Amino acid sequence: MVLPTLTNLADDALIALDNLTDRAANLVHPTVRLGVTGLSRAGKTVFISSLVHNLLNGGRLPLFEAARSGRISRVRLEPQPDDAVPRFQYEEHIRALVGERLWPDSTRAISQLRITLDYESASGWGRLWSPGRLSVDVVDYPGEWLLDLPLLGQDFSAFSQTTVALARSGVRSLLSAEWLGATALLDPRAPADEAAARRLADLFTRYLKACKSDERSLSTLPPGRFLMPGDLEGSPALTFAPLPNLPDGNAPKGSLWAMMERRYEAYKTHVVKPFFREHFARLDRQIVLIDALQAVNRGAEAVRDLERALGDVMACFRPGTTGFLSSLLTRRIDRVVVAATKADHLHHENHPHLEALTRRLVERAVKRIGMSGAGVEVMALASVRATREATVKQDGTELPVIVGTPMAGETIDGETFDGNRKTAIFPGDLPADPQALFEAAETGADGPLAPTLNFVRFRPPEMQAAGEELKLSIPHIRLDRALQYLIGDRLA
Ligand SMILES: Nc1nc2c(ncn2[C@@H]2O[C@H](COP(=O)(O)OP(=O)(O)OP(=O)(O)O)[C@@H](O)[C@H]2O)c(=O)[nH]1
Ligand SMILES: [Mg+2]
User: Fold this and answer.
1) How confident is the model over 241-270, as pLDDT tens digits?
2) Percentage of the chain with pLDDT > 70?
3) What per-residue confidence (pLDDT) applies to 206?
4) How far apart are CA 28 and CA 419, in angstroms?
5) CA-to-CA distance for 1 and 158, rounded, in angstroms?
6) Which one of 342, 348, 454 would you pick to mutate in the ligand 1 pocket, going by the greatest count of ligand atoms within 8 A of its CB?
7) Please, is 385 exposed, middle or buried when counting C-beta atoms within 10 Å of its C-beta (0-12, 13-18, 19+)?
8) Is the CB of residue 246 less than 8 Å from the CB of residue 160?
9) Phi, psi of 76 (to 5 degrees)
10) Sheet order of strands, 376-380 included
11) Ligand 1: which atom is nearest the Cα of residue 228?
């Protein structure tokens, strides 16, 4: 298959110009553009909120060297560089998290925040020029949109073929039956018909929603705006759907096929490309957040699907010389952290297992983007630690447990929680060798991979300042390690 030409001169020129402007600004005012990447519900908004809060309030960050050695003299939020992007609602998220112990809602639109650190350089030479100043620009967006990036490399036929093949596999075949049934009755060469297009788009969207539902938790679900339309709600740009069994050749003029193809291309040009160009193409550093536990909890297909989605997305970071996006990327991401989030759902003895699983999930993707040698750090973290650890004695043996407040409506062993009462649970063990999980997956067997695991959603923790004058900071697990890897070298 020949890849379609992705870009035209205008795109290249625009990005080159953006990067040039960035570089010029960078000389005067050193800046890191940090990409916080993750599929929906992976924990991006919580990560950004907690990171900023810990920096602003002098949180416990012993592995973040500049903070540990007291070289950071001042941290503040500053007006963001891009006026056209709304500001990240930091204060509101913190008020909810800390004040009301509520998690943020799903993100519906893009937003940005700039945090600036004044620091003293660690080296004598650097101190001559001090004080140093580094701004970190962070962007938050709905995770669904990430799944659009791989579409840039697919024409309508390829998109249709991939999407339909996937929809016919495994559990998806049940969820897609109605949509595929309706499509089978249509001739793609028949005259374009708005009502038919609408109906197909509607059924296709319902299929995507069913895949995303909590019980399934599947990940590979493009196009992202079908699940999270943002300002495109009801727009004709979303009134298309893939068509099965497209013949070779071009779509006949005026046909349903031609109409769907045109809309798909418009979606790429007007929705996906601007997002990629304005956000992705300009990043310096990336952290990829992964909710591996949710996938494990939902079973073999969810884990495989997560691996697939991550592979598709990571291919866009650093396409290499042969990659389809390389012409769009003038800036190379040189450091990536891949982090399993929500590690506070497990006892720390299991964190290495979670890390191993995460490494396995992105192994192929990392190899493909040519970063297996260096530049990728894998870890398990919790942006907000909602639990603490304890041990309970049961029948003479000590069990490692975690203690937290389950969210209202969560059930454990038939008991439903009200959102106020604390409880201790034994979360169970992840297998030491993640390969076991993947082998289970490859047999095609479905159902929970590790049925002994016990996952419950917890409310954010109660936080109390230790004294009047002491600021309170959000507890976390290894947020400082991530921070050190992502920006530590820029504060040297
Ligand atoms: N216990 C715990 N739960 C977390 C943590 N981070 C995120 N969560 C949970 O994961 C959910 C999703 O987190 P968000 O930060 O909103 O996820 P997101 O990636 O911004 O999701 P979208 O905006 O939908 O793309 C939260 O509502 C929490 O329930 C964490 O560090 N610990
Ligand atoms: Mg979010």
Assistant:
1) 999 989 999 999 999 999 999 999 999 999
2) 85
3) 96
4) 49
5) 9
6) 342
7) buried
8) yes
9) -155, 160
10) 72-78, 111-119, 132-140, 31-38, 285-290, 335-340, 376-380
11) 24
The answer to whether 440 touches 27, Cβ cutoff 8 Å, is: no
| Maximum distance among all Cα pairs of the chain, rounded to whole angstroms | 77
375 lines ligand 1 (CB under 6 A): no
Closest CA to 201 of 219, 218, 225: 225
N- to C-terminal Cα distance for the chain?
47
Return the higher-pLDDT residue of 26 and 452: 26
| CA 66 – CA 456 distance, rounded (Å) | 36
Question: With contact defined as beta carbons under 8 Å apart, do 92 and 214 qualify?
Answer: no
Distant-in-sequence, close-in-space partners of 288: CB < 8 Å, separation ≥ 6 = 37, 38, 310, 313, 314, 336, 337, 338, 339, 362
Whole-model pTM: value is 0.90
Work out the number of other CB atoms within 10 angstroms of the CB of residue 234. Answer: 8
Q: Of the candidates 3, 300, 287, which has an alpha carbon nearest to the alpha carbon of residue 150?
A: 3
User: Which among 36, 45, 46, 402 is the best mutation to test ligand 1's pocket, defined by most ligand atoms within 8 Å of the CB?
Assistant: 46
| Three-class SS state of 403 | strand
